[in-house]
What does this fold into?
Amino acid sequence: MPFGHDMVYSLATVVDLVNTSPSTGGDEGLADLDDLAEFVRARQVSGIEALTPRDLGQVRMLREDFHRVFTATDQANAVRLLNTLLADTRITPSLTEHDGHPVHMHYFAPDASLAEHLAADCGIALAHLLVEGEWERLRTCSAPDCARVFVDESRNRSRVYCDSRTCGNRMHVAAYRARRRA
Ligand SMILES: [Zn+2]
Ligand SMILES: [Zn+2]
It folds into this structure.
């Protein structure tokens, strides 16, 4: 996919964010403010000051909105859901250069809260994916006990598991064992 650093980065961030939700089959990944601070650190979300319980509540709600975009039944639904999210988000485009990355766009408002920051940058990244006609790359893992989401960046859009090192391997081993038993 011919996407720049910021877009690839924002897509990876929204995938990580959605996958903290228990609705993707695992434990609560944002159980408290420490988890939230760790997410901000790991995803290098810039310009974020002290986090409050309000931030935690807002980010947990936002990830469910994003999850609905990933699990939308068709492109029209994904567009509708994303438009609602973008309409509720303050967006201020600005060109920036930081941390060794070439000039790229940021979309969050200068005084954005963490949820607003994520809604703006991740929302725009998903919007570009839809504009490119790549909605189908937004996937949910095919492993039976996993509902984690991912963006399929494979050339032929053939990826079905959330992470080839975990679910992919696990499923291959299970299929191998099943064949041996047969
Ligand atoms: Zn940046
Ligand atoms: Zn999985």
Q: What stands out?
A: The chain has six helices and four strands.
